[in-house]
Each structure stands twice: as C-alpha cells, then as structure tokens.
Specification:
Number of helices: 6
Strand order of the largest sheet: 2-1-3-4
Helix content: 40-55%
Largest sheet: 4 strands, mixed
Structural class: alpha+beta
Strand content: 15-25%
Low-confidence stretches: none
Mean pLDDT: 88
Number of strands: 8
C-alpha cells in the first residue's frame, strides 16, 4: 500500500513520525515540502502529513495501530468481489474475527451472519451523495448491500444472500465502501 509522508527540514514532529513509521516497518515515500513550492504554500508548518493510498490519513502525528489497520483495510479494498455460486461454506469464528480486524472501521459482525455499519453526515445531501457512491461501487462489483438512507446518516448491511451468511467478498465490499468515506 502506498504511504506518503510530507515533511520539512528541522521539524521535530516530522522526525517523530519518520521514526514511528520506521519502527513499525513501514517505509513511506518521503516528500520534503520545502523542495516543492506548491506543497510548501499548501502545508506551511502543518506537517507531518501522512497519506495512505492517496488520501490524507494523519496530520501532525501518526497513530501506528490505526495506520496499520488502514493499510490492511486498503489491501482488502483492492481485491475484487467474487460472485457466489452457492455451495460455499459461510465464514465463522476465528475466520470472521480475523477479517473483521483486517477490515477495521468499526464494522459490526452481527450473529456471524452479516456486516453492519452506520455512517454519519452533516445533512441529507451528503448522505445521499455517499449512498450514490456506494451504489456505483456495488454495481461495479456485482455485489449489492442493503442501504438505508436518512437525514444525516446511511446504514449499510452486507451479506451473501446465496449462502445466507458472510464470505470474503462481503468484507471486500465493506472495505471498498469504507474508502468512500475518507
């Protein structure tokens, strides 16, 4: 997964972020904004800034455990949903727990049957726009969640109907939806 660190010379917080990333075994692309006038104008002293997969993840600090979860979730989101033909066993127990940790984002596994999450927004228009982005991803993947749209919130429930339970593709779709929120 692509991790980029925007930094400046003689920046104590930037040095702390670099060290934390190094200690965690994460090797980011390091960009010194002092060498890029546009970035210097944009960020001035507002560094370090860490991007994961092209999206801003942290500013001024790094939470390594959250960063690792983001990287794992992004890797899951890069997979493709595989249509279920039936006859596939449902995920249970430790397999579900491992995928839930990989997914992150506070998704709930409910009764080892479905994934569920509610997203909050400032108003109906933002919630509707998010719902439409989910719809576009669902169509592209050929995997369709249940979506409940209300003022300021969107509820998403995912499971594989053919087996009446969860498959890896359900977690892949949830990870793709999670990336739409950031």
């Amino acid at each position: 997964m692509d991790v980029t660190l925007y930094t400046r010379r003689d920046c104590h917080l930037c040095d702390v972020a670099k060290e934390a990333l190094h200690d965690a075994g994460i090797t980011p692309q390091v960009i010194d904004i002092d060498s890029h006038p546009d970035l210097q104008r944009q960020y001035t002293n507002d560094v370090p800034v860490i991007f994961v997969g092209g999206r801003e993840a942290f500013r001024h600090r790094v939470n390594i455990s959250a960063l690792k979860r983001m990287i794992m979730s992004a890797a899951l989101a890069n997979e493709k949903c595989i249509p279920c033909q039936g006859g596939v066993p449902r995920l249970k127990g430790s397999e579900l727990a491992a995928l839930q940790r990989e997914l992150g984002g506070n998704w709930q596994v409910v009764d080892e049957h479905h994934l569920k999450k509610e997203f909050g927004f400032r108003d109906f228009a933002e919630a509707l726009a998010f719902t439409n982005r989910i719809g576009a991803v669902a169509e592209k993947e050929g995997h369709h969640p249940d979506i409940v749209l209300a003022w300021g919130k969107v509820g998403v429930t995912i499971w594989t109907h053919k087996i009446d339970g969860l498959t890896r593709s359900d977690f892949v779709l949830a990870a793709k939806i999670e990336t739409l929120q950031r």
